[in-house]
Write a structure and sequence with these properties.
Blueprint (H helix, E strand, L loop, with lengths): L6 H18 L7 E8 L8 H13 L4 E7 L2 E6 L4 H12 L4 E8 L4 H5 L6 E2 L1 H4 L1 E8 L1 H22 L6 E5 L2 E6 L2 H14 L3 E6 L5 E7 L1 H26 L5 E5 L3 E7 L4 H8 L4 E6 L10 E5 L7 E5 L4 E2 L3 E8 L5 E7 L1 H12 L5 E18 L2 E19 L7 E4 L5 H13 L6 E9 L1 H55 L2 E2 L1 H30 L4 H33 L3 H32 L10
Parallel strand pairs: 5-23
Antiparallel strand pairs: 1-3, 1-4, 2-3, 6-12, 6-22, 7-8, 8-10, 9-10, 11-12, 13-16, 13-19, 14-15, 17-18, 18-21, 19-20
Helix pairs in contact: 1-12, 6-8, 8-11, 12-13, 12-15, 13-14, 13-15, 14-15
Membrane topology: Multi-pass membrane protein
Family: Belongs to the SecD/SecF family. SecD subfamily.
Organism: Halomonas chromatireducens
Length: 616
């Protein structure tokens, strides 16, 4: 019988529409503007009296509180008005000490029964949701110094293996200088080192006990190192941002030594800076023996007890660069630790060093590059100058009980939070050179709300115009098309929510375009039905022919547009990708609603029934 679907097809269409409705519902529950209070080191707690005092102070200031959630070392205060966020944060920060970080946040408000179905709202981009924008600068001088330190360590090992005595090493700028007891040792060292290290220009200076080998890194090697440092930092920062779970972040190079990082939805700038900008690394070194010459040792204090010190060998066994994976856990006494797996080269070096030093202590040295702002007077004006400095401290000093391989653990950490952050940094990789924050900009949710309001208004205006046109032009069939259009929008939102796609302003433009394209298929079908009626076919035959004969044209037109959208997504970046995503999903949902949903409504209304006149 013409214009009748089997029961299974009606059920299938109904299930798809129901799933789409359920998974689009979370978008009706926008995130709450909130203020998050957390411990700096992860071990401080907020007691009930402090929390009551904070709540009362906010109420006295006329700030409405939607709810307060407290768990261990973290408190989340939900607010009713985004404009109250900044004022609340400043008030709370003034009440609490330096042991706490008070930051802006956006708290999820999706009902529990939807969360149980893994339903969540669409992810919004930086232009809609707000977030943070960082401009970072790579410290090229530090990158050069680090490379020279590594080369110096390797050179010292070569000299010791060939029993060539040296008196000391010195690094200045891009020059590495070795001092020897006589000219013969210097010349032997030059022949040995020059074979392995070809990125230096070699020169001899002094004589007797002041004989020196001066090695200056070539201009090409310096340029290659700087390019490597920026690219390696780009990769590391992308890994760290991925660990943060930020949707649609942007990490890209700007100029010769700068990197731009944009994190949509991130309001806790302190936490973001702590992870993104962390320049921490680890070094594994042996403790110096009592008879080790002073020129081969360095003294360091413990991070958790500065009064304790230990003398370590200058030579590094491995660094954090050799770590392939790291995870946080707890030891048998419930203290935090980090489980580490090394790559092949790191495992070999660790095994070689520990196999011949059983019973000797091995230290884990934590290194972090920081900056501090100092004020200087220049030409009678106060100028703020950024001064880089490096903090080094021992995490642990343990006896080597047996030869270590690719897997071992680090203990001696202060808190689970510190262990988690250290594991994250080791997993994502250490930076090839320190980076410093040149610019930090927070895009507040109020700006995003304004963009969302304008975007929604554009969708509404487009939807109203399309609805009116379809009603006037196609009457009852226009109602079918308009219902399908609403369902199409629902399915599109559900698909984006389920796939975790990010909605941006260009994405909203894609939705508006989808609304217009969605009725194109219905227009083709309805006009085809009119033609069939004018040619003398019966109403049932005209409906059937209209859908069947318009099918090929509709699919061909939408497939070509879909191919263009896929190309845009594959080669585009940022806004172009956002537009391509909504356009691609919109084409798929439009085909479903235009060809199946409207057909099922027409079939249920006219199929198998005597119809004298068709309102189209």
């Amino acid at each position: 019988m013409l214009n009748r679907y089997p029961l299974w097809k009606y059920l299938l269409i109904g299930i798809v529409l129901l799933v789409g409705l359920v998974y689009s519902l979370p978008n009706l529950y926008p995130e709450d503007p909130s203020v998050q209070i957390s411990s700096v080191r992860g071990d401080a707690t907020i007691d009930a009296d402090q929390l009551d005092s904070i709540r009362q102070s906010l109420l006295d200031a006329g700030i409405d509180i939607k709810g307060v959630e407290s768990e261990d070392t973290r408190v989340l205060i939900r607010l009713d008005d985004p404009d109250d966020q900044l004022r609340s944060r400043d008030m709370i920060a003034g009440m609490l000490g330096d042991d706490y970080v008070v930051a802006l946040n956006l708290a999820e408000a999706t009902p529990q029964w939807l969360q149980a179905l893994s339903a969540s709202p669409m992810t919004l981009g930086l232009d809609l949701r707000g977030g943070v924008h960082f401009l970072l600068e790579v410290d090229m001088d530090a990158a050069l110094e680090q490379r020279l330190e590594v080369n110096a360590s390797a050179m010292r090992e070569q000299l010791r293996s060939e029993r060539i005595r040296y008196r000391g090493t010195e690094i200045e700028g891009r020059t590495l200088t070795f001092t020897f007891a006589n000219e013969e040792d210097r010349d032997s060292a030059r022949r040995l080192i020059a074979r392995e290290f070809r990125d230096f220009d070699y020169d001899s200076a002094g004589d007797g006990r002041g004989a020196q080998l001066v090695m200056t890194m070539t201009e090409q090697a310096v340029n290659d190192l700087q390019d490597y440092a920026v690219n390696q930092n780009l990769t590391t920062l992308r890994n760290r941002v991925d660990e943060l779970g930020v949707a649609e972040p942007m990490v890209q190079r700007q100029g010769p030594d700068r990197i731009v990082v944009e994190l949509p939805g991130v309001q806790d700038t302190v936490a973001a800076k702590r992870v993104v900008g962390a320049t921490a690394n680890l070094e594994f070194r042996l403790e110096a023996r009592p008879d080790t010459p002073d020129i081969e040792t360095q003294s360091f204090s413990f991070r958790n007890d500065p009064s304790r010190t230990a003398d370590l060998m200058r030579d590094v066994i491995i660094t954090g660069d050799s770590v392939s994976s790291a995870s946080r856990s707890f030891d048998e006494n419930g203290r935090p630790q980090v489980n580490i797996n090394l790559d092949g080269t790191g495992g070999t070096l660790m095994n070689r060093a520990t196999r011949t030093n059983i019973g000797r202590n091995m230290a884990v040295l934590f290194i972090e590059h920081r900056t501090r702002d100092t004020t200087v007077i220049e030409d009678g004006e106060e100028i703020t100058v950024r001064e880089p400095y490096t903090e080094r401290g021992l995490i642990s000093l343990a006896t080597i009980q047996s030869a270590l391989g690719n897997s071992f653990r680090i203990t001696g950490l202060d808190s689970p939070t510190e262990a988690a952050e250290l594991a994250l940094l080791l997993r994502s990789g250490s930076l090839a050179a320190p980076i410093y924050f040149v610019q930090e900009r927070t895009i507040g949710p109020s700006l995003g709300a304004e963009n969302i309001q304008r975007g929604v208004m554009s969708v509404q205006i487009g939807l109203v115009l399309v609805v009116l046109f379809m009603l006037i032009r196609y009457k009852v069939f226009g109602i079918f098309a308009n219902v399908a259009l609403a369902l199409n929008l629902t399915l599109l939102i559900a698909a984006m929510s389920m796939l975790g796609a990010t909605l941006t302003l260009p994405g909203i433009a894609g939705i508006v375009l989808t609304l217009g394209m969605a009725v194109d298929a219905n227009v083709l079908i309805f006009e085809r039905i009119r033609e069939e009626l004018r040619s003398g076919l019966s109403i049932q035959q005209a409906i059937h022919a209209g859908y069947e004969r318009a099918f090929t044209s509709i699919v061909d037109a939408n497939i070509t547009t879909l191919l263009v959208a896929v190309i845009l997504f594959s080669i585009g970046t940022g806004p172009v990708k956002g537009f391509a995503v909504t356009l691609s999903l919109g084409i798929i949902t439009s085909l479903f609603t235009a060809l199946l949903v409207t057909r099922s409504m027409v079939n249920l209304t006219y199929g198998g029934k005597p119809v004298k006149k068709l309102w189209i």
